[in-house]
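Entry:
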Amino acid sequence: MPHNAFQPNGAPTPQHYAPVPQRYGMLAPYVTPPPDTVGPHGFLLKYGTAHDPVEAYRPETGEQGILVHTEYYRWWIVAPGFATAGPRIFVNGNEIPDTLWGRTYLPAAAGLYHVEVRTHRPNFFFRHFVYPWWTSDTHPADTVVPVAAGQQTPVYYRPGATRRMLGAIGPTPPRWPGLLWMRITSVITAALIAWVLFAVLITILD
């Protein structure tokens, strides 16, 4: 594993790499980064969300490549906004077009890949009339994913509860960041709606 690079003041030296172009319908493996790169296997993880090592990923039998599973918490109060938002998936710096919640298959040659997922801002209505604070991508997460010849590697992504929270990504379905907050706000909202409906019903029947 490469050693850390530091500036004279002790701060890590940032690394920037050009995206690797796609070829022959497959994603190209990550190019060898420059020396002194910070991160596992020579990768720089931007968000520190990869808690699982590369070796934790388990390629499965299937069409060769990466299968990205993206999911939002459907019982949360802001779930309608997430439904219109959708994920943004980047592999080695290249954005994958037309991605939706659910499963996204990415054909890829054997090798290691830097996979980054973010949650896109919601559509015009939710962005301007419901969630005016949600003006940009949120809940980023990234990891390093191995692809073996003739096999498929699953990756799982879940966004967090608040705008400033990072997302979660890994070889198995991770826990939603802020899940307790999601559940509490959902229960409170459901209770308030039930109370209002009950009050309206009592008023009508009175």
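Strands lie at 60-61, 65-70, 87-91, 94-96, 102-107, 111-119, 138-147, 151-158, 168-170.
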